[in-house]
Every structure is written in structure tokens, then in C-alpha cells.
Design brief:
Length: 233
Amino acid sequence: MQLSQPIYQLKRRAKLLAREAGIPLHAAQDRIARGEGYDTWSLLSAKHAEARRPAPILTELANGDLVLLAARPRQGKTRIGLQLLVDAVRAGRRAVFFTLEFTEAQTLALLAEMGAGDDLPEIVTTDDIDAASIAGHLAGAAPGSVAVIDYLQLLDQRRETPVLADQVATLRDFAQTSGAILAFISQVDRAFEPSVSQLPGLANLRLPNPIPVTLFDKAWFTHAGSAQGRAIG
């Protein structure tokens, strides 16, 4: 779907219109929606959510894979990760979201917006998330269990944790031994230039602390509604 502005800007316009015109917010939202070609705001929102639903990637992953989900901010990498977990739950697999970025309430709100319903992953929000705690939490998980770590660059933010490369190596060993699938949400450097390349690549990863990308098996990059997966190595 093509909107005249991002939906968050349309929401702001609706709030401003409600104040200026002295009408209820829902009436202002419906008026904005009609300007975008939809009868009601609820229809616009539903179509927007459907259009933003990430393509499924679970079937493209093998047990023991380490995966990168990378993009610039507000490009959908978190949604891709959460959709992966929802799909895992629906496939009868264990699914866990380890996040150093979101609260549980924020995660649940995003899952609800995505239409996850009751197919919710476990959500771990402690500040102590690192390779050791992830492996410990997933100990005994069945092969094919899926975990998403949000996000890669925060894993070594505490001084007492091992450097990032060592943590990823530890988690790679754990994944290969247990058969768990581990996906890491990752930042892309702001130097990425969409006018040069439609999608970022491995060279665009933001890695303040060096890490061999060959530790990962696959990567998904997304930007401006486009996404592409690729094997590494």
C-alpha cells in the first residue's frame, strides 16, 4: 500500500485535526483515512499491518543456524525477528525473545499490532542478557527451537561480559550442539547509502567491536520495504 506519509505522521495529523476541529479523535482519523483512499481508519490500519507483515523465513533456516537480521532503524528488522518467533510458536516450536532494547509491555504491544494473537514467544527482558544467560535459558530446548536476540551490538555493553566475538562464538557452539536456531537483530551503519545499493550488506554492519561474520550462517537485510536473505560463507 502507498500512503502519502508514514503512518506515524498520519496519526500526528489526526491528533492535530481533532484538536483544531474540535472533533473526536476517531472521527479525525477516519477523515485522514478517507484522504488516503480508505473508508475508515481501522481499514487503513489493517491494510498497513498486512503490508508490513514480514515474509516468513522459518522454513529457510536449518537447525543450528546463526542468523543476522540487519537494517537501519525503523526498517522492520524487529518485526522480522518477532514474526520468526510467532511462526515458530505456530509450528509447535519453543520460541524466545531476548531483548535488551524493549520492555515486555512494548514487545507485547508490537506483537499484538502484528496480529500474533495468542501465539506468543517467551519474552526475556533482564539487563543481564549475554551468551552465558542465553545458553543457560535454552538448556534442554528441543532441536529447532528458535531464539531472537535484540540486539547483537548490546551483548557486550557490560564491562564484565566477554567481548562480542567470543560471545557469538560461544553461542555458535551452543547452537550447533543443541540444534537451536539463533537470530541476532543487528544495526546497520548510518553510512549505508540507499542511492548506491537498494539493500545493505555485510560490509554495512555496524560493528564497533570486530567480529568475524563467518560465525553466522545466513543474513537477512531489509530497507524501505524490501528484504533479501543470503547465505554467508
